[in-house]
Structures are given as C-alpha cells and as structure tokens.
Amino acid sequence: MSATKEVRLRAEDLTFGYEADHPLVAGWSAEFPAGSTTALTGPSGRGKSTVLYLLGLMLTPDAGDVLIDGIPSRTLRDARRAHLRADRFGFVFQDAALDTTRSVLDNVTETALYRGMPRGSVESRGRELLDLFGVDVPAHRKPGQVSGGQAQRIALCRALLHAPDIVLADEPTGNLDPTTAGVVVHALQEHARTGAAVVIVTHSPEVANTCDREITL
C-alpha cells in the first residue's frame, strides 16, 4: 500500500459473532485506501460476507470499530449510520438484490433519491449508466423481466449512481458469464481510479488478480 494514499476505510480490531461465545470475526484489522481495489478472499465460512456487512455499517461489531475517513462509527445512532450508508457507500450483492415490484430505473435511482438528489438529474444519470453498461431493456421494465447478467449490471448502476467514496461488492461476478463479469470488474476498477475505496469479496482467483491488493481471511 502506498504511504501517500489516504485511508478511506479502516477496520480496527473487529470482533463479531452471531453467537456470543463463538465469534466469527475476532480482532480483525485492515485498511482500505482511496483509489484502490481490495479483494477479500478465503474459504467458505470464514466470514468474508460478514466482514463486508460490518464494513458497510449493516452490522454492528461486538468490539472494535469501523472508521470512515478517520471517524469512528460504532457508537453512532441508527439514523446516522443509515445516512452514512446512503451518502458514502455503494453496495453490489451477488444476487443483485433488486426490488421486483419497482422498475429498472427506480431500482437504479432509489438510493440517490433517498439522499435528496434532484429526481430529474438522478434519472438522467441513471439512464446514462444503464446505456454505458449495456442494459438494453426499457427502463420501465421490472427486474423479473431481465436476465441475471442484466440484473447485476442494474445493481452496479445503482451502486455507482451517486459516485460513492466506498464500494462494497459481495461476489459481484459469482453468477455471471465471463464477458459480463469483465464489465462489472472493469467498472469497479474505473470507479476506484476516481479516488474511491473498492472492496470485493470473491472466490475467483481471476477477479482477485485484477485487484490492487488481496486480503485472505
């Protein structure tokens, strides 16, 4: 890691367990600098996804803390944590996690609208991203009417729409063909070059090899 890079996201001695006497993560620390991609790798069951949810403030550690640009987050109120998630983070999940009751465009724009961004500019940017990533379907179509590869690219558009400082991706290429996987990985790399910290949980050596850093759990 370059000493000149700002640490965008830091985990300090994280401990967490779904059962109090069996911590899945114990005393884990890591730094994620701005402008870099980091692969989180390791065997199934080692807590990679759990670490990602801790980093993304979706879980609260039993001990330790997650710092965002040096600011501790563990003791923040739920409303403040939710605001930070919406404002600073973009999330890409393995199953895309789209709302099947809403349109493709609504799925892309929902987080940005929650942040209070103007609907007109948000929808315009959403359409630009859908076009950029080759999601060649009508914007009013529902997620159940698109392919798995298209759904993952829609999720990527949603994650990148508000140009977040931190992107967390959980097996974003796990169910994709090589061509679509390449589109997703390239987009994440390009976003990191804007100064974001990108963290990718992956079982794929090919994906890990494209990242700037690799941390094995």
Automatic annotation (TrEMBL):
Keyword S-adenosyl-L-methionine in annotation: no
Domain ABC transporter as annotated: residue spans: 9-217
Transmembrane segments: none
A single GO molecular function term of this UniProt record: ATP binding
Keyword Nucleotide-binding: yes
Keywords associated with the record: ATP-binding, Nucleotide-binding
Gene3D superfamilies: P-loop containing nucleotide triphosphate hydrolases
A Pfam entry, by short name: ABC_tran
InterPro entries xrefs: AAA+_ATPase, ABC_transporter-like_ATP-bd, ABC_transporter-like_CS, ABC_transpr_LolD-like, P-loop_NTPase
Family: Belongs to the ABC transporter superfamily.
PANTHER family reported for this sequence: IMPORT ATP-BINDING PROTEIN, LIPOPROTEIN-RELEASING SYSTEM ATP-BINDING PROTEIN LOLD
Protein name: ATP-binding cassette domain-containing protein
Native source species: Microbacterium algeriense
Organism taxonomic ancestry: Bacteria, Bacillati, Actinomycetota, Actinomycetes, Micrococcales
